[in-house]
Write a structure and sequence with these properties.
By secondary structure, the protein is of the alpha+beta class. 49% of the residues lie in helices and 15% in strands. The longest helix is centred in the last third of the chain and has 24 residues, at 99-122.
Amino acid sequence: MNEYGDSSSMGIVSVEMLAAALREKLKGTAYEEEDIGKLAEYIMSFFGFEDRIIDNMLNNEDRDMFYFLEDNGILRSGFEDTTVEKGKPWRIHYWILNKEEIFRIVEQTTMKKKDTEEEVYALYDNPELWKRGEDDHESQ
């Protein structure tokens, strides 16, 4: 990641990945499954294939949502100082997808799901569990 929060080497965050991360982060809140999917699409409509966007493209409602997502670790904010004409300093604020956290959550969720599936199917690996009462009598 560079100084501006560019983590493009990590890959692209898809709407599905963002929705999975939001689902995990927003557990126990008023957000329903359908709302989370719409929220992921809404957020990704700003970012597209980029990792960061400039803050001044947001209205107040959008910005409030971005602060909420920052509080939940999905987004980060940053800024860049530059000098414009006549030496006047200017600060540009950015919103950055927290790709490290999103990828971590998706990987963790995937591992949990895989572990659960392995537990469920593990019962098929033990032939003792599948013996019936009469099978015991046949072996005697």
